[in-house]
Amino acid sequence: MAKGDDIAARLVAFAVAVLDLCDKLPKTPQGTHIAGQLLRSGTSGAPNYAEARAAESRSDFIHKLGIVLKELNESRVWLEMIQRRSYVSGEIVSQVLDECVALSKIVAVSRRTAAQNAGRIRQGSPAEQ
Question: Which of 50, 76, 80, 122 has the highest local Cβ count within 10 Å?
Answer without folding.
Answer: 76
